[in-house]
Write a structure and sequence with these properties.
It is found in: Membrane. It contains 28 helices and ten strands. It has about 600 residues and is of the alpha+beta class. The chain has a five-stranded antiparallel β-sheet with strand order 3-2-4-1-5, with helices on one face. The longest helix is centred in the C-terminal third of the chain and has 26 residues, at about 575-600. The protein starts with a helix and ends with a helix.
Amino acid sequence: MSADMWFVFTLLGVTIALFLSDRIRMDLVALLVVVSLALSGIITPAEAVSGFGEPVVVMIAALFVVGEGLLRTGIASATGSWLLRVGGDSETRLLLFLLPVVALLSAFMSSTGAVALLLPVVMSLSRRSGFAPSRLLMPLAFAALIGGMLTLIGTPPNLIVSGQMRSSGLEPFHFFDFTPIGLAVLVVGMAYLMLVARRLLPTHEPAAQTGVGIRALYEGYDLSRQLHKLELLPGSPLAQKTPAEAALRTEYEVTLIAISRSGGWLSSLIPVLANTRMQYGDQLLVYATPEDLERFCQAQALRVLPCPASEISRLEQSAGLAEVLLPPDSSFCGQTLKQLRLRERLGLSVIGLRRNRALTELHFTSTELAAGDTLLLAGSWDRIRTLSQSRELVVLNTPPELEEVPTHGRRAPVALAILGAMLVTMTTGWLDNLSAILLSALAMILTGCVNLKEAYRSLNATSLILIAGMLPMALAMERSGALDYLVEHLIGLIGSSSPLMLCASLFLVTSVLSQFISNTATTVLVAPVALSTAQLMGVNPEPVMISVAIAASTAFATPIASPVNTLVLSPGNYRFADFARVGIPLQVLALVLTLTLTPLLFPF
């Protein structure tokens, strides 16, 4: 081997070792790779940083903006609500609906694009379901990679092997030639991800949190048993009364949060506005102790209804919680909630109190607030945003859910139209993928679906740097001859083996190489060797080439194997070894299915 080859192999080994050690951030390791390659002379400094201008990096950055538009207009939240409604509190059921969606998208557009679009949906779903993002994001990425196996345009390796067949004077593959094998891998892969991988998936907390989540606050203030859903029965004295007229808090210690009428929320504020009148058949969402609730229901002809966790998720879309501290110089000290009239002053209600770190019973008319008290406030997100301007309170915690509250909800139809146009344009080929996605990102900004500040904040720097930094590695391996060396020696071991052994060997070679360099670059290198070997052995090249294409999409074992994996690395707070633990068994399943089905569909 030449000195350049030794250098590239050593650099690749050190990089993998650093990734596995988790002692240095992966994006910093990628930057070290860029500097090392620039100084090596194997590629020029311009080529070493060329990854930052690669179309795939620009496309991913633009897709972050498109995804932010879906988040800020409430589409991501609505999709998460639907998934949560159909999936309930079961992680398996959630995946059952989520995985086919991303696989279908990946069959007709870039798998990277599909994951980037669904990333905000899954993060929203994770926060509201209580499942760690790491339990959902890796299956999402793997399903997207498998989805690329379903059609000719699903992933570049499929197009490369088809083009290689055409350039050799053979019949190229048709649009759905990959579908039977890809569909089998998808079905078996989904079963594995839902039934087996759930025992292998880590449960990591998100890498960055802006505060304690709403559900943690509910539990921390022991509010889960105090949230109730009531129905206003015929003959109830509450009919046609406002909350103020009914004196819910002063007489019954009951806080009315929202009213559901004919399936829609009448008010998004907490508590309901003073002039809101209740009607027969209304469903009331209230906070009250079990004792106060029983007294309230008996006096006002109300029926208690089941209050599932989905009610909290539904409420979170328009209302939330904030934890604040009462400083010594606050004018609120020494006053009761009735005297303070916080509903009128702040538009918020106090629903929990901690004094000396201990939960303290709170009475609307008699509990006097004291310096050092920690209060849990409930109200609309708009009101919670303005809390930082108050001189009477110190904000301790605003939940991360605040970041995904729609700020441009009225633009949702526009965002949907932009998304639909992008998908149609990419699927039909009217525009190339990069142009379609860049135009969509620009349209999101120009139409007000997302502002520039939100667009810049949406860019995941860790993922972009990691992808851009590792892309030149493939060029260095090709320029130094390291890739040719690997393939020639590995293919040479096959010798005159059987056609099935040829497919198995090529699958392993392609799959292993795809874990560390671009699957596109791997396929470009392996495809002509595979075709020539098949022709020399006198076997039908179709099953051999399909094996190479499927193998190139099994980039499951490392986070740098595909931009798809890299996208979910930071949000899921994954470690390098997490991918190997979950991904290698899936690679083996794909190998077995490919070797079993390919000879049946494309005889040797």
